[in-house]
Amino acid sequence: MLSLRAAARNNGSPVSLTRHIRPVTRPIHTKTVTDADIARLAAKPLHPLTLADLCKHGHPPLSEQALFNSANFTLAILPSRLAHRIQSLRALPYIVVANPNVSKIHDNYVHSLSTLLPIAERKIESLKDEVEFTAVMADLVQTHSNTISILARGFLEARKYISKVEVTRFLDEHLRARIGTRLIAEQHIALHFSSKPHQKLSDGHDDDKMDHDSYIGVIDTELKPANIIRNCEQTVGEICELKYGVRPTIDIVGSPETTIAHIPMHLEYILTELLKNSFRAVIEAGTEKEAIEITIAPAPASPEETKETKNKAGQMAHAEVGAISNYDQGSVDYASGSNKPDISASANIRPLREATPGVTVRIRDRGGGITPENYEKLWEYGFTTFNEDEINEKVSGSGGGGGGLDVMSGGPAGGSSLAGLGYGLPLGRAYAEYFGGGIAVQSLHGWGTDVYLSLRGVGKVD
After folding, report:
1. The Histidine kinase/HSP90-like ATPase domain covers which part of the protein (predicted)?
2. Nearest Cα to 61, choosing from 216, 248, 181?
3. What CATH number belongs to 4-215?
4. Tens of pLDDT, residues 50-72
5. How far is 100 from 131, CA to CA, in rounded Å?
6. What value does the CA radius of gyration of the chain take, rounded to a whole number of Å?
């Protein structure tokens, strides 16, 4: 079996964690989830998770006790997060929740909670229990892999029964919270494979090699953005060549050797979405022969710089210096009504150190820029701007619409069924802001567009 760590090291590319878990020979145990269970768990405030929490179990390979600590920590915080999401779905208008797609997401969360409840009744103190728990984590990640695309279609179909403002608030909260839940589960899965007791499941890495690995779970402490950019260029370029017969190119300038500590899966999703937009723009403008310029600039990513970037992107500035707001991480939970902290309150997830190094990536294209009317709608979820015929095509799945680049909407956001629904840029911003970064767009209509991606590293890990 290919080790998770070896696969993850492949040019910094993200990996699907669930594919590396051996098939479970027996079904996962479940327990009926009652309304009382949901109310009890949702009454608990969301755990103030820090990135130090994700790394506190030590550098791989993990000992048996460190592995148990990781499992018990994960188990302690996930049930309440799932319960909060169930309540937020139930707080939607009944006719919206009754939509088959929205109902499916509700049922998926109930299912995942039902798999955690039997394990939550005891403490994980044996390898047998830890293996069972990791299988449950893999099931959770797989079950919710298409949450965004299913929700998108559900809200398309129910658009007459819920306002644009209500949908935007729900999705901003729900999808950002999903990032954290998925991150917590995937982190333990990755630590599972990098533990001493389970090294036999990998391809035989010895302790010395793993000690020098740059990964701690899903966090790459030596991530090189230039490598991710090149991977995304290759993928998006192939789609362009197949659909349009041309392949735009990019020119990386600045400091391409810059490294930061970050999560490759998140960065690849962001850059794929940004390059899709630039590639499409230059193709439609007929300027694809002129390379798209990408500048990589290492920066301290101070709180003031992060605040300035978010202001440019039209987002609120955070009152607390060095903090990532609860809004950024979907921990406000207005939808369920069970947890309403101050939107500018201290973060649930912080960088490991306040002065973490960061990087700014500027993507500059000559694609004609963005029209003023579209610029105002840049951060809206796409379904709110479709005309009725386009919406009906998206709902029925019959539309070929949007062009070849619409097929590129996978990654941690969820599969190609997101194609053309306009979720890419808002979601990319959510992933950037999750760790205190941001996306700012400056457009000169008739000429081109500059996109600034600010990334805060998750911190130096000793």
Report:
1. 262-459
2. 216
3. 1.20.140.20
4. 667 788 888 888 999 999 999 99
5. 34
6. 22
Going by C-alpha positions, the residue among 373, 379, 378, 368 that lies closest to residue 445 is: 368
DSSP assignment of 208-219: HHHHT-SEETTE
For residues 36 and 86, is the Cβ–Cβ distance under 8 A?
no
DSSP assignment string, 366-431: -S----HHHHTTTTS-GGGT--HHHHHHHHHT----S-GGGG---GGG--GGGTTSS-HHHHHHHH
432-442 tens-digit pLDDT: 988 888 999 99
**Nearest-angstrom CA–CA distance, 322 and 436:** 8
pLDDT at 58: 81
138: which 2 tokens? 């893999």
Output the DSSP codes for 321-374: TT---TTTTT---TTTSS----TTS--SS--SSTT--EEEEEEEE-S----HHH
Percent of the chain with pLDDT over 70: 68
Q: How far apart are CA 64 and CA 204, in angstroms?
A: 18
Q: Domain locations in the chain? A: 4-215, 219-456
Tokens 């006719």 belong to residue: 95
CB atoms within 10 A of CB 395: 17
Looking at residue 459, what is its pLDDT?
Answer: 63
Question: In the numeric block, which tokens belong to residue 193?
Answer: 């494979």
Query: DSSP of 234-270, one letter per residue?
Result: HHHHHHHHHHHS----EEEEE-TT--EEE-HHHHHHH
- What do you get for the CA distance between the two ends of the chain, in Å? 29
Helix (H/G/I), strand (E/B), else coil: 298: strand
Q: Which residue has the tokens 């290492």?
A: 298
Q: Which CATH architecture has domain 219-456?
A: 2-Layer Sandwich (3.30)
The pTM of the full predicted model, rounded to 2 decimals, is 0.79
Q: Are 436 and 351 in contact (CB under 8 A)?
A: yes
